[in-house]
């Protein structure tokens, strides 16, 4: 990933991406045979595929690990 690039997708293995939004500009030398081909350089977005499903048990205690008061302050009168 190039300096100051803004990545808005998944950078495929062995690709060099630059720009804002970042696009693939080439494949690292020697990796051409194994790298996935991108027609227009746009990065695929597989965010939904990366989501891990989970279930939380009933009655779980919700807490703020930093001990912050999560309620807004009362308005002054």
From TrEMBL:
GO molecular function: acyltransferase activity
SUPFAM superfamilies reported for this sequence: Trimeric LpxA-like enzymes
Entries under InterPro entries matching the protein: Trimer_LpxA-like_sf
Domain of life: Archaea
Region of interest (Disordered), residue spans: 27-52
Bias (Basic and acidic residues) ranges: 40-49
Swiss-Prot/TrEMBL keywords: Acyltransferase, Transferase
Stated name of the protein: Acyltransferase
Organism: Halorubrum pallidum
Record lineage: Archaea, Methanobacteriati, Methanobacteriota, Stenosarchaea group, Halobacteria
């Amino acid at each position: 990933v190039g300096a100051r690039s803004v990545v808005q997708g998944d950078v495929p293995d062995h690709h060099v991406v630059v720009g804002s939004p970042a696009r693939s500009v080439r494949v690292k030398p020697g990796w051409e045979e194994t790298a996935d081909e991108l027609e227009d350089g746009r990065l695929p977005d597989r965010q939904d595929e990366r989501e891990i499903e989970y279930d939380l048990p009933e009655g779980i205690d919700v807490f703020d690990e930093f001990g912050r008061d999560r309620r807004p302050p009362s308005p002054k009168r």
